[in-house]
């Protein structure tokens, strides 16, 4: 045995210099009373694995700032739960640190509830988290994972100056338990030191952040903006024109936290929000870059557009975009 992993697992060295995790209950104590005793003369001071103390559930009350490059490159305002194994070699064993990451421009008051087997909810934690910070909210064992895979996080947002008061946000989450027992699910992330599992809890771009974008000059579009939802302005490229790249890495900071079905849903919602905003803000043309891929995203966009009145759809110029973009002309804004 080379080291203790947790209260149930130890690491055992085998041929070739490799180490494997083994249940402590499967180890045999060999007394030096036979011919094989010469291999076990070396003594090791190993603490009783049953005496390993459980970490505190609230190990820290001090948030730490996210790296400046993470904040400066923020494309959307997101909140995450991040699970980071203590043992970065054996990722599916040992204790995990649980971080709450606030990659938004808002200070946050949070309230964490855990869903019980009875269907009721129990309050677990509450506190505050500054804009662009992360907080270690718990250190847990693998046995405690089921207590952290189903829950609800509530948020209140604060900023010294904003155009509108953001509404409270309620986010239920459910994480598949088996996700924690596949090493490929642990990935390097800008939100963790080492490899971890990143779970997106909330994205505020669709609900809140668009309301804080600078208001445009109505004279620049040739008509008054009758809707304050000016989400499309962040993609403006010219007079009453915009270009929106729907590749997921252009929309979020950490796309590795998305499942495939979540990526498509996010892209669809982002597209629809841009389209509505472009109509409301008097835009005449929006180019949507959907990429080539398997063509699913393009089909989704075309299905949405065929039900829109006053809109024409064309393939974007091939010399600039290849076959990976469409142009949406909003005729009734002329």
Structure notes:
- With 334 residues, the chain is of the alpha+beta class.
- It is 13% helix and 32% strand.
- The chain has helices spanning 68-72, 248-251, 260-280, 296-305, 318-321, and strands at 3-4, 9-13, 19-23, 64-65, 78-85, 96-103, 107-115, 121-129, 133-140, 150-158, 169-174, 187-188, 195-203, 236-238, 241-245, 285-289, 311-315, 325-330.
- The longest helix is centred in the last third of the chain and has 21 residues, at 260-280.
List keywords for this structure.
334 residues, alpha+beta, Immunoglobulin-like, Ribosomal Protein S8, Chain: A, domain 1, six-stranded antiparallel beta sheet, 5 helices, 13% helix
Proportion of residues in helical segments: 10-25%
Record field, number of beta strands:
18
Shape assignment: elongated
- Rounded radius of gyration (Å): 26 Å
Q: Strand portion, in percent?
A: 25-35%
């Amino acid at each position: 045995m080379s080291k203790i992993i947790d209260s149930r697992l130890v690491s055992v060295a085998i041929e070739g210099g490799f180490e494997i995790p083994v249940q402590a209950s499967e180890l045999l104590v060999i007394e030096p009373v036979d011919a094989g005793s010469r291999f076990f003369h070396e003594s090791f001071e190993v603490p009783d694995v049953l005496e390993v103390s459980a970490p505190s559930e609230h190990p820290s009350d001090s948030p730490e700032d996210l790296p400046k490059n993470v904040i400066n490159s923020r494309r959307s305002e997101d909140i995450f739960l991040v699970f980071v194994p203590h043992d970065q070699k054996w990722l599916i064993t040992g204790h995990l640190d649980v971080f709450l990451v606030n990659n938004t421009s808002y200070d946050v008051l949070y309230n964490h509830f855990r869903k019980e087997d009875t269907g009721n909810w129990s309050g677990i934690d509450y506190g505050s988290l500054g804009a662009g910070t992360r907080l270690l909210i718990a250190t847990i064992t693998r046995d405690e994972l089921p207590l952290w895979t189903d829950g609800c996080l509530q948020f209140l947002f604060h900023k010294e100056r904003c155009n509108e008061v953001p509404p409270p946000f309620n986010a239920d989450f459910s994480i598949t338990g088996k996700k924690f027992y596949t090493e490929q699910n642990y990935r390097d992330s800008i939100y963790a030191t080492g490899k971890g599992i990143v779970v997106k809890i909330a994205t505020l771009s669709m609900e809140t952040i668009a309301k804080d974008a600078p208001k445009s000059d109505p004279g620049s579009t040739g008509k008054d903006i009758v809707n304050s939802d000016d989400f499309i302005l962040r993609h403006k490229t010219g007079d009453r024109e915009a270009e929106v790249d729907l590749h997921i890495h252009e929309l979020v900071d950490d796309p590795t936290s998305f499942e495939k079905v979540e990526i498509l849903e996010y892209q669809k919602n982002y597209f629809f929000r841009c389209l509505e905003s472009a109509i409301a803000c008097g835009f005449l043309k929006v180019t949507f870059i959907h990429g080539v891929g398997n063509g699913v995203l393009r089909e989704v966009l075309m299905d949405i557009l065929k039900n829109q009145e006053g809109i024409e759809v064309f393939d974007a110029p091939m010399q600039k975009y290849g076959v990976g973009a469409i142009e949406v002309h909003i005729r009734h804004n002329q």
